[in-house]
Amino acid sequence: MKLAILKISVMIFAFFMSCKKEYAMKDSSLKHIDYQEKTTDTSKQKKGYKYFEFMDEELNILSTRLLLPNSWERSSETNYAFEGPNDMRIGIVQMSPLSFYTEDPSMIDTYRMNGIENQYPLTLNEITERYFMPYARQNNMQLVNTFPIPEISKKSVAFLKLNYSSTPTKQEVKTIGLEWKDNEGKRYLTVLRRFVHTRNNQLSWGFINQHIESKKADYEEAKKTFIDAILSEQYNTDWLYKKNKIAAQKAQQQFQAHQARMNAIQLNSTNSSFTSSSSSTSVGDIYSDILDINHAGYLKRSNMTSHGHSKTINAIENRSVISNHNTGEHYNVESGSKFYWVNNNGQYFGTDNANYDPRTDRKINQTEWSQFEIEN
């Protein structure tokens, strides 16, 4: 079961040219597409080059395009994206799992409970040593040079800023080139990008890499072709609009559900019909015929708690703190369940069934449900 805090990864993975869910077309066939970065004399008018376009299969719309010489074609090999003259080849984009770091004790507890390592971002040198050098040693490759590529970092940050975010997010991307040689006379350039996103009280980070390989005599040409291709990438404005609209709608739905819960909790706290112990009994009766539900109740203002109060709640018998890190809500509820769900009417229930989802249960899916995490 994924944490709510992991949802920010959506905008990060859109950054990777949607490489695992898109396909490349051999040339630019849809000339009417409006791209975010207008072509210039050094790209659109450049003789001997052509565009390769990429399709976002989930949204069914062209997303990006980049320039390569006319002599290049899409590769039919699984681990390669393009092939050029004289055995030049560009590999597919590869990406690391997303990692997280926080100094917030409450979120550290959440990480621990869900098996997530609290890992401070590695430097580019540390990433190289940990993830690239073992492969290089196994394949008799030598790292002969590294150099920064600030132009790619700048372009990457500019793209990330075009993506919708419901919360202010600081974007940082650092890029280096890793130059290699092997015993067979081949040369390689790996473009390695590390991204760090700072949002509220946590960092999310990871890295992506892609390489080009060639014969020694053609390496300088291959190197220039590869870097120029990355810098030539352009983004379809219709794709950006559609993608951001969906993200904004999801964020609005979460906010509306939060507001509805707050209103319901206020009503539950002031309405005399909900102030007695019969309130939990009545809502429990509503869900009593659903075998997956252990217990249910109404949330009130007295259920609200905070990060700092969580440790105190731990000492109270049969109570747990549940939270929604997207909205900052924390509630003190009856313990004894592995999973908790809260709807926009201020009702909650606990269940031990990881597969039970009230959003697909016709008996109770008339209201919107959100999953909450257990803090303690």
Provide a descriptive summary of the structure in words.
It is a single chain. This protein has 376 residues and is an alpha+beta fold. The protein folds into 2 domains: 4-235, no CATH class; 275-374, no CATH class. Helix content is 27%, strand content 31%. The chain starts with 8 loop residues before the first helix and ends with a strand. The model is unreliable at 1-33, 38-43, 272-284 and 306-313 (pLDDT under 50). This is Lipoprotein. It comes from Winogradskyella epiphytica.
Summarize the structure.
This is Lipoprotein. The protein is about 25% helix and about 30% strand.
Number of strands: 18
Helices and strands, in N-to-C order? HEEEEEEEHHEHEEEHEHHEHEEEEE
Strand-pairing-aware structural class: alpha+beta
- How large is the share of residues in beta strands? 25-35%
N- and C-termini, Cα separation: 17 Å
Q: Taking all residues together, what is the mean pLDDT?
A: 78
Number of helices: 8
Organism: Winogradskyella epiphytica
Protein name: Lipoprotein
Which tags fit this structure?
31% strand; six-stranded antiparallel beta sheet; 376 residues; nine-stranded antiparallel beta sheet; 8 helices; alpha+beta; single chain
Could you give the topology of this structure?
Blueprint: H1 9-13, E1 49-56, E2 61-69, E3 73-74, E4 80-83, E5 89-91, E6 94-95, E7 99-102, H2 105-113, H3 124-138, E8 141-148, H4 150-160, E9 169-182, E10 186-199, E11 202-215, H5 219-231, E12 234-235, H6 237-270, H7 278-286, E13 293-298, H8 310-314, E14 319-324, E15 329-334, E16 339-343, E17 347-351, E18 369-374
Antiparallel strand pairs: 1-2, 2-12, 3-4, 4-5, 5-11, 6-11, 7-11, 8-9, 9-10, 10-11, 13-17, 14-15, 14-18, 16-17, 16-18
